[in-house]
């Protein structure tokens, strides 16, 4: 029986050959370095293909995906990706992109024991708790589900903005800007939730201001002198 995954290697051969037709140096350039302008934080869902739906080529998008696009301060994976993207790759934009029909969000709306998933889903259940008045007022279950997808994106954007590296880098260079988007699988459209990054930053810095250090100020001053 022909192994089903063999088609992946066949696809890969066709793909690399097609790249070389347009640009014989494609892989030479690709292997030299990377300087993506965007960090994309999205869901692991197999139907949400970041590069494809955004029309991005290899090298243009730094990607982190997990169940329901969660950014949790105790999760070393997402926080390491964000720190690396901000400090070393100097990305200009951080996009948190959720999607309607998200299984992780649906599971979090189900008040029952889901074993190992419980600690992960708790971050999303916390989003529900924070916005319970608004969500419980939505009678239509589908609309409530869609709204939790949007609110989860908004709260994960806030979790990104809480990070010291994001605040420090923004103070120094006026980037990265954090964006909240939702992919609508029913239409194929990406919807910009138009999160007000500067206002959120200003609001949360009343509690989470992590930039008031001599180190940041001296870095900013040195930069202004150059
Ligand atoms: Zn999902």
UniProtKB/TrEMBL annotation:
Listed InterPro entries: Carbonic_anhydrase, Carbonic_anhydrase_CS, Carbonic_anhydrase_sf
Pfam name, any one: Pro_CA
Keyword hit for Chaperone: no
Co-factor note (free text): Binds 1 zinc ion per subunit.
Residue positions binding Zn(2+): 43, 45, 99, 102
GO molecular-function terms, A-Z: carbonate dehydratase activity; zinc ion binding
Keywords (A to Z) from UniProt: Lyase, Metal-binding, Zinc
EC number(s) on file: 4.2.1.1
Cofactor(s), by name: Zn(2+)
Keyword presence, ATP-binding: no
SUPFAM superfamilies with a match to the protein in the record: beta-carbonic anhydrase, cab (SSF53056)
Record-level GO BP terms: carbon utilization; cellular response to carbon dioxide; cellular response to oxidative stress
Reactions it catalyzes: hydrogencarbonate + H(+) = CO2 + H2O
Cellular component GO terms held in the UniProt record: cytoplasm
UniProt xrefs under PANTHER family: CARBONIC ANHYDRASE (PTHR11002:SF51)
Main function: Reversible hydration of carbon dioxide.
Family, as annotated: Belongs to the beta-class carbonic anhydrase family.
Protein's recorded name: Carbonic anhydrase
Organism in which the protein naturally occurs: Kaistella treverensis
């Amino acid at each position: 029986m022909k192994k089903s995954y063999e088609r992946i290697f066949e696809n890969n051969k066709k793909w690399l050959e097609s790249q070389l037709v347009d640009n014989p140096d494609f892989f030479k350039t690709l292997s030299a370095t990377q300087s993506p302008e965007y960090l994309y934080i999205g869901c692991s869902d197999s139907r949400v293909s970041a590069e494809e739906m955004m029309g991005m080529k290899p090298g243009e998008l730094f990607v982190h995906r997990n169940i329901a696009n969660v950014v949790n301060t105790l999760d070393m994976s997402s926080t390491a990706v964000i720190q690396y993207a901000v400090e070393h790759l100097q990305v200009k934009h951080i996009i948190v992109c959720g999607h309607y029909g998200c299984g992780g969000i649906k599971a979090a709306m189900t008040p029952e024991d889901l074993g190992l998933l419980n600690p992960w889903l708790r971050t999303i259940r916390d989003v529900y708790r924070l916005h319970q008045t608004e969500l419980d007022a939505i009678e239509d279950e589908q609309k409530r589900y869609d709204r939790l997808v949007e609110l989860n994106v908004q709260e994960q954007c806030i979790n990104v903005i809480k990070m010291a590296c994001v605040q420090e880098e923004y103070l120094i260079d006026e980037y990265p800007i954090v964006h909240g988007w939702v992919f609508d699988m029913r239409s194929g459209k990406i919807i910009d939730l138009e999160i007000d990054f500067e206002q959120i930053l200003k609001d949360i810095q009343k509690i989470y201001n992590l930039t008031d250090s001599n180190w940041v100020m001296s870095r900013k001053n040195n930069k202004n002198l150059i």
